[in-house]
Structures are given as C-alpha cells and as structure tokens.
Amino acid sequence: MSTDSRQTSTGPRQMKLGAFLMATGHHVAAWRHPDVPANAGLDFKHYKHVAQVAEAAKFDTLFIADSVAAATGDAASRMARSDHFEPLTLVSALSAVTERIGLIVTATTSYNEPFHIARKFASLDHLSGGRAGWNLVTSDAAAEALNFGRDEHIDHAERYRRAREFHQVVTGLWDSWDDDAFVRDKASGAYYRPDGLHVLDHQGEHFKVKGPLNVARSPQGQPVVVQAGSSEAGRTLAAQTAEVVFTAQPSLAAAQAFYQDLKSRAVGFGRDPESLKIMPGMFVVVGDSEAQARDKFEAFQALVEPRVGVALLGRMLGNFDLSGYPLDEPLPALPLTQSGQQSRQALLSQLAQDENLTLAQLGRKIAGGRGHFSVVGTASQIADHWQAWFEQGAADGFNVLVPHLPGGLEDVAHKVIPELQRRGLFRRDYTGSTLREHLGLQRPANRFSAQREHRVTHTDEEGLKV
Amino acid sequence: MSTDSRQTSTGPRQMKLGAFLMATGHHVAAWRHPDVPANAGLDFKHYKHVAQVAEAAKFDTLFIADSVAAATGDAASRMARSDHFEPLTLVSALSAVTERIGLIVTATTSYNEPFHIARKFASLDHLSGGRAGWNLVTSDAAAEALNFGRDEHIDHAERYRRAREFHQVVTGLWDSWDDDAFVRDKASGAYYRPDGLHVLDHQGEHFKVKGPLNVARSPQGQPVVVQAGSSEAGRTLAAQTAEVVFTAQPSLAAAQAFYQDLKSRAVGFGRDPESLKIMPGMFVVVGDSEAQARDKFEAFQALVEPRVGVALLGRMLGNFDLSGYPLDEPLPALPLTQSGQQSRQALLSQLAQDENLTLAQLGRKIAGGRGHFSVVGTASQIADHWQAWFEQGAADGFNVLVPHLPGGLEDVAHKVIPELQRRGLFRRDYTGSTLREHLGLQRPANRFSAQREHRVTHTDEEGLKV
C-alpha cells in the first residue's frame, strides 16, 4: 500500500477529490452526535486536524462553502449554522499548517467588491504557494441582502450579469503584472519593470475599477475559478468561466446528462473540455460492512428533529419558510423560486412525489446528503459507484461530503482512498505543488503579456524589428 | 537576564510595544540593502520569522498598515510598495504560527462593507484566541477611490462621518450574540439560546445593516479598535472610539501636547483615560556604539535616489506629485491637503523651513522615519528617549519602526528590549493571553446583554420577579 507509484501528467486518468468541509459535517444533526465536537465551527485545531487528514490522504483540495448571513429563527437555533469562521481568514490560517492541498473558498459576487476579492485570493495564492481556488457564487437569500443595504436579494438574471462582470474584473486584475514584472534589482534600483504593469481600467454596467492590483501575479497565474450553479444562467456562466464545477446530481444518468451538457457548452465557447473539471457531490457513510454503515447513518438520522429537517428542506428548495405547513402531509406546491435553487427544487419535488413522502419524511431524507447522491456502505461499494460515474462520463472527480467531522473524513481517508488507489483511480502521492497541477489545469497566460507578444509578432511579420 | 520577574496586572506601569511591519522595513531604500530580502512582501517565511522574533521579545502586538491601491509611476517602480500580501489574509496565516502576540491590521472604512469587516475581525479573534486588533482608517488617495467605482476620494468630513457610522455598525455586530448564547446542548437539541441573539437592525446615513453576525462573540468580546488620525476630525473620532492611537510626533513636547489633548477629549466623552492607549511611532537604528548606529543609518541613506525620496515626501504631504519640481530648490508652497495628512504636512513644511532644506534633502531626510521621531544610537540611548516619553506624559508605549527587516527588529529584540526590561519598563513574559490583556484594556460588556440586565434590575426595583 505504501509502494510508490508516482503518477505523472502523462499517466492514466485519475479522479480529482475535494473534501467539502462544513464545521461539524454535512449531516444536519451531526453536532448532536457523541463523536462530534459541537463547537467545531470556531475551533481552529479541529480544522487543522481535518485539513491534515485530507492532505495525508492526498485530496486535491479542501472546499469551504459560505453565507454572509446568520441563520435565525426557531429551527435555526437548533442547527450548527451561525457560528463559523469566515472562510478566507480560516483557509489563510490553514495555509500555514498544510503544504500541498488546495484551498477552495466561497466568496459571493453579489455583495463584494471585485478589487477586494481579486486581492485576497491572489494573496492567499502567494501565502499557500499556489493552492488558492475561488468558488464564485451569487447570493440568493434575503437575509444576506439585508446585511448590505438592500431590502431584497438581487434578481436571478441581474445577479448573473453582475457575476459575469465581476469575474471579468477579478481575472483582469489578476493579470495586472507580468509574471516577471518585479525584477527587484538592488544595484540599479529598479523594483519593477514599468512595461510589466497593465492597468485594467474596467468600466462596465456594475463596476468601474482602474487597477492595477497591489499584489504580484500569483504562483498559479490565477487562482482556480470554481462554480456551483446548475440553472440555465449558472451553466452558461460556468461554461464560459469555470475551471471546476461542483454540482448536486441525483443519479448516474442525470450526472451524465449534466456532464455532457456542460462540456458541450464549454466547447461552444471555444474552450478545451479538459479545462473544465466536473466534480459532483458524493455523500458517503463508510462502514466495514453495509449493515455497519447503515447503523452509523441511522444514528445520525435518529437525531434529526422534524422541524429541523423541514427547515433544511425549505432552504434547499430556495429559502422557503415551511414552518407553517403540516409535518405529516405531502410537500405543498411552491412557487418557482427566484433563488439559485431552481434545479434543486425540481429534484426534490420529484423525489417527494415518487416516494410519496410527507414533509417530515422528506426533510429527514435530505438531512444527510441534502440532495446529493448518497452511498451508505463499504469502501468497496462506495468505490464502485465513484468508479462507475468516473468511467462512464459523469464526473472528473468528486466533492466528498461526509456526515460528520472529523470521523467521516477519517473513514474516507483510511478506507475509501486506499481502495481507489488499489484500483489505480487515485494518486498515491502528490506530483505537483499547486492546485492547478493537482487538477491538471493549465497555468493561464497573462492576457496582457500575450497581447504584447502578439503585437511584437505581428510587427515582425511586417518585416520590422521592434 | 532570564530571571523570571513576572509582571502582574497590579505591578508597576510598563510600556506597550507594537512592531510596525512593512515588508522590507520602514526605510524607503531598505529593499536595496544587502541584508534585506527584496521579495519580503510576498514571502510568508519572512513574515513568520519576523512575527516569531517579535513574540519572543514579548511585543504586545504586530501592526500592519494597508492601502487598497498599487503605487505606480516612475518613482513607484523604484520602491517596494506594490507587491504585498493583503494584510488580513497574512495575519490570519500568522495566527497559526504564533501563540501570544497581538495582530493589529489596517482596514479602511471608506471602501469596505461593515458586515465583512466585523465578520473577518471576529473570525481572526477566534482563530487567534483573542489577539485581533482593527486599525480603523479612512482612505485619502484618489488611486484607492478609482478601484471602487469612484473618480475622487471621499472628502475629509464625509469620510469621517462614514467612519463613525461604520464603527457603530461593526461594534454593534460584534455584540450580536451573548457570550454564552451558544449552548450546544446535544441532549435537548438546543444549539443557541434564542434570547442570546441580538439583531442590530442599523439604519443610518451611510449603512443599512440588519445583522446578526454569523460568528459567535469573540474571545476579546470585541477586537481592539486602533486609530491613527491626528486631524481635528481624526482626534474626535479617536477620543470617542479608539482604544489605541498610533501617531507621528516630532518631539517630546509635541507628543506631550497630543497625549494631553487626546486623553482630555476621551474624558470629555465620558471615558476612562486608561481605556485609550497612545502609542507614538519611534523610528530607531540600533548600534553597539552611536557611531556604529550612524554608519548603519547612512548605509540606508546612501541608497536613496532623490526622485524616490521626493516621491515618498509627496505621499507624506498628502498624495502630491512632486516629480515636476526642481530637486535643489526649497519645498514649494502647496495647497492645504484635503487628505488625511494635514498634520503631517504642517510638520514637514516647518522642518523644511527650519533647516532650510532643498526638496531632495527633505525627501532624503524623511526616507527612514517618515516624520516619526527618530533615534539613531545605542540601546541605552534609545531606552533613554522612550523612558522620557513614557514617564513624562507623552506615551503609553510605542509603535516601533525599524529601517529594515528582519535585522532592524532583531536589533530591537536583542538589544533594546533587554535594556527596557533591566529598567523595569517592559515585561519579561506575557501574563495574559489576549491583546486586551497585554494592553491592559477591559473586555467590553455586550451592550445588549447589559441592557437586558438593566431591564431586569429595573423590573426588580418595581418588586416584580422576572
């Protein structure tokens, strides 16, 4: 198991794995479980341990979600949701206690300024030696809007136009400097080459940003851009701009269709399909036997209060307050959401109908996987599913969701990962040092340097020496 | 020297010390010096070393300045100014490799959202176990405005009104939760006490922010609030809201007047003068003899190009472009700046007049200390000055500015600090674990919890049991 079979970039295709970290785990009742530190959300030692477990298992990356509002109300007071580290500060600290693993962090385009986001992620990329990734999201919750001077969240179409422009500004700022602009020549006194500086001077519908960024171009050239939108607008934006897509898919067939659709769209935008990695979420509960895995899962399920499960369901459906509806009746008909959860809403409504579930039953059903494909079983059973998805055109890898932390991730690290390694489906060691290298993503050329080279070439063709 | 004479909170008054960190040091030509790593601004190992040197010397805090714009232009291309870590990400990483030292970071109120700032500093306070400080500034440079959708920086009065309200919102959000709101009771399923939650619901001239914050109240209750404004509006704001003031004072007499003025103003606002610590900057070059210190200093001075010194001068005077003025003529008459540098402008104009300096000479003169009081000499001579200021009503402590890093700080740590300790003027070890404890600042009560207790008391007086 410890023999070194280093993968090179020309070796067989292997899956990419992200460790999706919610403080106490992905199961809504995880915090109540005796094995789980209930205060994990604000315990740096906990996160340090979890990050080091993931790194020892050679995960490509950590993945940390975010919201810019606390959850309040009766059900929220019974969930571990309102007392977490802000993720950029958290992963900056984690960068100092890890060496190789990627650090993907969520930051919203709806209530931020592109200069700050460009700068913080470039800084994180420098701090970590090239391990930063930005999960670009839009904000769909009224509670978030209310913290930033608005009465309502921004409507779907507008939010995506803003996100598209936000991405243009951020990536433009990341190219403010040539990779070799900072010469720092002590003898001559030249600190940077003036012709290595590029002023963005962006003026658009939502933003006016001059630049340049006050951070040198970062080790990865640009931090990796990640997205998770599955709506029409979300897919279009991802196909244009994302390098990694995180998605919730209920079945192999649905995942195959999504994979095919997104890769085709990317090609339609002139992109190499390999430049976009699709990583569906996979919720897993690992046991030494299937029965043991089921018992583990049931121990979490037994801790779900109906009102908490239903509150989580309301959020999954698009920030609906379902607290007024009877628990033992079917899911009521709901208006099509204006939020970012349209695809999740369709998926869950279908599930409720197919299995004839009451509201409480549906809430309990999604308490662990939250709409992601779930496998409760042995390492071998889990690897079978992942292998099928990976080899049958449904995924380039997975975001791994575990019911509880750190135990659930330790189970994956110590049982599932070795099984994948035996099958040749996952690396035994890192071969690169940056997140891009782990994921097999090219380091982007600087758009301005490329232009300059292009201009020079063009001039050369006219027979001039420049 | 290593005998333990632990200071208790009831021991003799001792000075507070901050290590003011610019990447390569405070001297504008430091990066050209052979002892200095020219790429320090983006070298985490460098900052880690510097932070650990300061912590081993028992400094109260690190102090990191900021600007939200790159410096561009001919002179800027010859200064180490445009390629630094973003400071909040930097100190978050430093929090993971230090244990006791405070972490004061600058963040502007002019181009940020209070929710983000409240959240990030609360998060840093949790990450670091209570060591966070926020240096609240306003932004006076047009280059910064241009990165945030504006053509001009916000005018002085407006900027301070905004800063005042920004402070109200941030500190209000820091009190979103009672210290004991998160009960996390696994048996009952109660994660937080609903009556421990306080919704700010702020609506003001500049901001509308509902809250609550999605971070529990932090170890210090509130991160320490630091300011550096010396204008009339700056002093008023500091007297109302600051817990630490960083200031540039040219002489003992001026520092005494400033100290007296600010403490009186604080008392005028109903505050205990001890709740506001005044820490002037002290630029020091340490030698084993005075002659050696002078030689050291001259080695830096010799590396200053006239155009670079004059560019720095322009910035000190309030973002003036002086590149068109003759180098060998006196400082031209300049319009009173609208920026935050009025007091610095008056100070430097006076200096130029008193010493009859040309523009180039004045630029060179401020290349190290940048208007701060400077001592070039032995540890004993430096300690004499600090002791005089400390004992004669000019300072509660100092922000220490060194020409170069890490060498300049190592000199202070290994030579000046032991001298201060011998004189009983500085701690030999930390006695507390939070920045507030180091500085002798009270942990603030939660305004809402206090109200609630007040209400209960009031009701009791009416003979009711609640």
UniProtKB/TrEMBL annotation, chains A, B:
Keywords carried by this UniProt record: Flavoprotein, FMN, Monooxygenase, Oxidoreductase
Family: Belongs to the NtaA/SnaA/DszA monooxygenase family.
Organism the protein comes from: Pseudomonas petrae
Domain of life according to the entry: Bacteria
InterPro entries: Diverse_substr_monoxygenases, Luciferase-like_dom, Luciferase-like_sf, NTA_MOA
Disordered: annotated segments: 446-466
SUPFAM superfamilies with a match to the protein in the record: Bacterial luciferase-like
Name of the protein: LLM class flavin-dependent oxidoreductase
Domain Luciferase-like positions: 30-394
One Pfam family in the UniProt entry: Bac_luciferase
Amino acid composition bias (Basic and acidic residues), ranges on this chain: 450-466
